[in-house]
Request: fold
Amino acid sequence: MLFPTSVIGSYPKPKWLLRTLSNPKASSEEKARALDDAVRLVIKEQELAGVDIPSDGEMRRVEMTEYFTERIGGFTFKGPVRVWGNNYFNKAAVVGKVYYKSPMLVDEFLFARQSTNKRIKVPITGPYTIADWSFNEYYRDKRELALDLASVIRQEIQSLAKAGADFIQIDEPAMSTHPEEVPWAVETLNEVVKGINGVKFGVHICYGNYRALFPYILEAKVDQFALEFTNRRFRDLDLLKEYSYDKELGLGVIDVHNSRIETVEEVKYGIGEALKVLPPEKIYVNPDCGLKLLDKTVAFEKLKVMVRGAREMEAEISGNGKR
Ligand SMILES: [Zn+2]
Reply:
């Protein structure tokens, strides 16, 4: 199959889920049931849209680093920090050596797997981004912290692999924001995947400076990079050619910061641009980033268009022979 479709991870939470979670009268059992229902719903929506490799929509996570820093030993919380606009997150501080306590995503994965027959992608926040988005009050520098976090994340991935997860995406959005740190950030990625077999590894990086990623990311022992390209109007794809990139590409063809629904032609144009630099069998198709900030109906419509574009492009290529 050409151009398998997937998501980056997050999906808009249903309004009734948010109401239940914020209702002080709701019991923890009611909240747990609502979360289960929400996961089944968003997986089915992705399936209805035709997505080949869905995720559980990260229904059980509030924010991409907080979920992990709450569960990894060595962190404490310093209260809300403003990140952009009126968005806040509870910034963690490292106050001791970080350590793995117990599985963080295994239950989430097992529940998702029993909710679908499709292959599931499990997103996990990477060590560099967790280190970059935390206050460091213990380690000599960010690199030392990130390397220790890499071993914690590796232990979680070992737990996931043992539970049957076979497609794990390491989310590293911070990696394109500090160009001078990319060389050692890639080292931490390799620490994460070290010695783990039977798992397909993707890495998601979005926004920021993609030129700074090269040539370093070519050294990452992962199968795929899932990158945002719609937002940057498919510029920077030539970097892949310039550096003879030969991994798979998760091509972002849906803008998650804009509620206008793309056309099928726009999706096909994006895939066409990627075909100028990579052979078709290397190209996966996904949105630029997580969908969680979109209206849920808009997210669903965008996924439908994305899948239609991928399927039409596949049909055209198979019909016409190789481009
Ligand atoms: Zn992203």
Remarks:
- The chain has one domain: 15-65+97-320.
- The first helix runs from residue 15 to 22.
- The CA atoms of residues 74 and 98 lie 4 Å apart.
- The pocket of zinc ion is lined by residues 8, 173, 204, 206, 289-290 (CB under 6 Å).
